[in-house]
């Protein structure tokens, strides 16, 4: 089953389980999710679309938002606002990362975020989205949008 097909199933499960399906908060939101033996390579990853996702062109950020809220299905777990309060994320333990946490964002490189989107996040419910739901170029656009959460007054 393709990644994008899981979202309706997860949402239906949460509706059936109700309040008992609430996500457990992440214990250490600053903990890296890239395995230590792959961290150096992850940090080297970059895109030709922009030099720094925090300063990506507005057009790329908008395209990233459309992917985050659509094809990428990110909002299902991370919520439309990025706070980790998406309906499907309610059944995950640990709960989805709060992408508005600027301390988390400042601690992680763009390459690390890309590695997680591409490979999933060991020890969490984050699954691999590249290839499958997103292309590599689309993943970089999502990262540009995710980085905008701090610019919008994240914590």
Description:
The chain has 155 residues and is mainly alpha-helical. It has a domain at 79-155. The chain has helices at 3-17, 39-44, 58-69, 75-78, 102-107, 110-119, 136-151. Helix 3 packs across helix 7 and helix 6 (110-119) crosses helix 7 (136-151). The N and C termini lie far apart (36 Å). The model is unreliable at 13-21 (pLDDT under 50).
Question: Which properties best describe this structure?
Answer:
mainly alpha, globular
Largest sheet: none
Which value, in Å, is the CA radius of gyration?
Answer: 15 Å
Write down the overall geometry: globular
Structural class of the helices, strands and pairings? mainly alpha
Order of helices and strands: HHHHHHH
| Low-confidence parts | 13-21
Helix content, binned percent: 40-55%
Number of helices: 7
Separation, N- and C-terminal Cα atoms: 36 Å
What's the total number of strands?
0
Question: What number is the mean pLDDT?
Answer: 83
Determine the strand fraction and express it as a percent band: under 5%
Summarize the structure.
By secondary structure, this protein is mainly α. It has helices at residues 3-17, 39-44, 58-69, 75-78, 102-107, 110-119, 136-151.
């Amino acid at each position: 089953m393709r990644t994008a097909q899981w979202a309706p199933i997860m949402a239906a499960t949460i509706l059936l389980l109700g309040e008992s399906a609430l996500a457990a908060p992440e214990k250490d939101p600053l903990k890296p999710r890239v395995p230590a033996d792959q961290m150096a390579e992850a940090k080297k990853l970059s895109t030709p679309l922009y030099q720094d996702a925090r300063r990506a062109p507005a057009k790329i950020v908008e395209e990233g938002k459309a992917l985050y809220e659509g094809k990428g299905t990110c909002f299902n777990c991370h919520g439309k606002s990025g706070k980790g309060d998406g309906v499907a994320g309610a059944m995950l333990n640990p709960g989805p990362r709060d992408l508005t946490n600027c301390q988390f964002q400042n601690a992680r490189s763009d390459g690390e975020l890309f590695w997680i989107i591409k490979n999933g996040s060991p020890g969490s419910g984050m699954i691999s989205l590249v290839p499958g739901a997103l292309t590599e170029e689309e993943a970089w656009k999502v990262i540009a949008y995710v980085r905008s959460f701090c610019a919008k007054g994240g914590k």
